[in-house]
Amino acid sequence: MGGVRKKLLTYLMLENEVTLNEVMAAINLSNSDVTNMINEINQSFDKDVIISDQQGIYISEKSKMLCYKSFFQGKEKLFTYHEVNVRYNLILIELLVDNEYSSLQKLADVCLVSKNTILNDMKAIKNDLERKGLDIVYSRKKGYSITGLEFTIRNLLVAAVKKILRSSSGRILLEEKGLITESEIFLLRRRLERVEARIGIQLTDEQLDELPYILQLVIRRACKFNRKWSFRIEKYDIKNTVEYPQIKNMLWDYHCLNETDLLYLSLQVLSSNMVESALQISDGDEISVATEKFIRNIEGYLAIRISRRSELREKVILHMRPAIYRNLLGFQINNPLAEEFIREYREIYNVVLKSVHPFEQIIHHKLSKQEVVYLSMIVLGWIYQTEETEAIFEAVVLCQSGTSISKLLLVTLQSMFSDIDFIGAYSVRQFEQLEDEVDFIFTTVPIKSSTTTFLIPSILDKQSRIDLKHRVTKEMKDNSYTMTRKLISSISHYIPTESMEEVSKIVENFFRSGNIDVEDNFKKKEEQFIFSIDHISIVEKKIKWEELVIFSMRSLLKRKSISQNYINQTNIVFFEQYEQMIIAPDVFLPHVSPEYGVYKMDFQVVIFKNPIRTPSGGEVKIVVALAPSVDNEHVSTLIRLNNLFLNQEALSQIIEGNNIFAIKQLLNKK
């Protein structure tokens, strides 16, 4: 293989997705040279191991391994340097799966740096481990070793392996360092696939890809150290589940594993599954009750009645069963999209964060940010579901990550494209087994297909949605024949046979002319209510508790947004359930369903300078009087208000302020 081609391949394998311009600058080649070399490499494999399009150049981890075996393995090393974050986790894995001690020189050789650099790395690692209750001991004769509770050590090992796997060419790195072999990973992957079928769980592509490495390195530690240890599971009896024996049998020939090792490895498999686990917890009623309270909290904060409520309840329960295990046992969950999701959907994240208390009562501590994000994805997907409409095209969503992310993508795309029937969200592995033909594929993982494919990010921000809308619309316009054929097929029973050909020509000419309605339904969902000074009341006089609802709703009635019956029903429900209608400290949201007499969506923010005492001893300082929309169009504004009232400084400015224009500006701030 030529030197320049190998330089190009090395660059691509050590990077994630890059643009053509970045490759040209890094390798000092022209556009045509890079394109030709990529074609030559692909031709040598008789398939596209390197995927190149207008959005970038990408090699999957599977293809990287294929290239490594062909051009590097047994000839030269792929890695000549490791960044500090990679060294950090590589050192941990070496210390945790090798012999009990590792010398400074050995660690320097493994990490391809000097001993002084390793000494600096060890200082940072030691400080981090002390916070976890672990310690690094040093012996001049033997070297370094990590000591502490075995359960904490194994969780540390699992977290380090996951981080290496999520670095560029991490699988090659583990093999190049002699930490795993291809045959070991192949064996465990095949066994996991069989266990999937036997116990009825569906691992995502990502989980099935990572678990063999995690299991193998934990097994290696267990066999190297071969010590007795234990950990408490408190009230959940894993051994008596139907899943545990199947996973235990999967590891039948690893004779060095004791019962505790097998239990820990089983829990890694069971708790890795985010949503679709068939795991049955013996104390399931507790989670069921907590889920019902959680959904009621969401409905209360957003003033909605969630449709297909029982389905959402089951989805949340299926998610929380393995999540409860993870939290009780201290397993770390990685959600690479957590920060991106919170940036894009901070308001819904904060609503869910306020609503998860019933689950936190079970585990006796706060849910992690990553767990709350997964729940937020489920909730957001349910809120933005749209009614089924007659569609022209069919499409699928492919996602390598967890089911929650796939579901969020699916409902987002359904909201954006009412003329596309999305038949489901699948892993790449699942889609390959489907026989259905579709018109479009929306995928977070680059794939090569004769079907029109749109590569999209896992979280679609506003700009991504705009760009995608233009791309898909252009594809629809350019495909006038398919649009005509599908549309005529769907309405053929309304068209006389003798007129079919003429109608088809008219419709096809219509599509060719570009007269296509591209109204963005998702944008409609995001439209915000604009508060004027008429929507704000600053009340100086004292109001009695019994008068609160009628007084707060009178502006809505005056604007003919609601009927008197709506006020009467709200009056009854609020005084019975007012403690469930608190959306922030001292902020109440009296409301009932719109069918009781809502004519149009409306809000009135009423600020009481003399707080009203509640029967339970609390205070009412703000009332958000709501006329909810039957189509839930009020939700985005209410989410924004929830977020605003969580900001103590902003809440104080509203409660204490007298400038109605300044309050209006705060309420309308996005």
TrEMBL record:
Thylakoid keyword on record: no
Domain called PTS EIIB type-2: residue spans? 393-480
Name the CDD domains for this protein.
PTS_IIB_bgl_like (cd05568)
Does the keyword Amino-acid biosynthesis feature in the UniProt annotation? no
Domain (PTS EIIA type-2) spans 529-670
This protein's name: Ascorbate-specific PTS system EIIA component
Give UniProt keywords alphabetically.
Answer: Activator, Cytoplasm, Kinase, Phosphoprotein, Phosphotransferase system, Transferase, Transport
